[in-house]
Amino acid sequence: MAKVSFEAFKKMNDVPILSEDDLRSWGSIVVSKETRRTLADNLIDYPLSASGSWATYLGNQLGVDPPDSLEAQYRAVKERLTNEFIIVELNWAGEGDGAKPYGGEPYTWHNFHDWAFHGFDAQWKVDENGAAGHHPNGVYRLAQAVWNTPIEGAWVTDFWKGMPSSSGPKLNANLSSISQAERDKLEEGMVQILAKEAKSLGAGRPIWLVVGHDYDRVLRHARELVGDETWRIILIPHHSGGNQGYVKGKASMRRWCPEALTAMYDSIGKARSALGLEWKVDTAEKTKFVFRRAS
């Protein structure tokens, strides 16, 4: 497993989401018609860690409380961190007015969107019995899906940064309030930020696990992230993808169900093989474990 160096770990907390060029190019786009806030209003001075975290499972034992240094945080998680995978969720968690990149109490739906190095929201909590920890709405499925696999310790980020929303409909309402030209420019910008995150992680040829709510969007930008190796982008269900994972009695590949997870693991195995890397995961057992309901 490719390790994340302390320098890369620190970069995620130091590198700004928006560079000066980004601010000039598309930072002035209004991302909420209701509040008239721009992307720069929501993201300026925030580092990459404001929209990402690490998929590590140390319960409440991540470093110290309060964390006394980045070095202490790094020591707590360094053996689990990897830059071979990057998980891309959908919406940027935040309060409705965009004043903060997160909100609410610890361990709510937005937990992995919180500051990656400033508290205990930076990790998920799972256990051998399939308990969901403090995640009643489905994020535990994603946690369990990657726990004890080579994916654990991956960087977790969002596609739509700077557009705070607690649900898909709210995100879409934001997006529909701006022009198509501005939305296209924003999409291009979001992909540039993802590429910046991969570079900061020191990731050479990462496998991208991207939520599959919008297949066309992913395919449209695939080559910008992986060139001709489009097999390194694998669509996965969104963590909040709904109940039993079925729509009108049929398995939905966009939700958590055994069929979708089996396809996901198989695709990851093939991609790992193409990269000359191992993928020793018991798909049948892991699928059964992930699909348990929250207790």
What does this structure look like?
This protein has one domain (6-290). Helix 5 packs antiparallel against helix 10 and helix 9 (258-274) packs across helix 10 (283-290). The chain is α/β, with parallel strands linked by helices and 295 residues long. It is built from 10 helices and 7 strands. The chain has a 5-stranded mixed beta sheet with strand order 1-3-2-4-5, sandwiched between helices. A two-stranded antiparallel sheet has the order 6-7. The longest helix is centred in the middle third of the chain and has 22 residues, at 180-201. It starts with 5 loop residues before the first helix and ends in a 5-residue tail after the last helix. Residues 102-122 and 130-137 have low confidence and may be disordered.
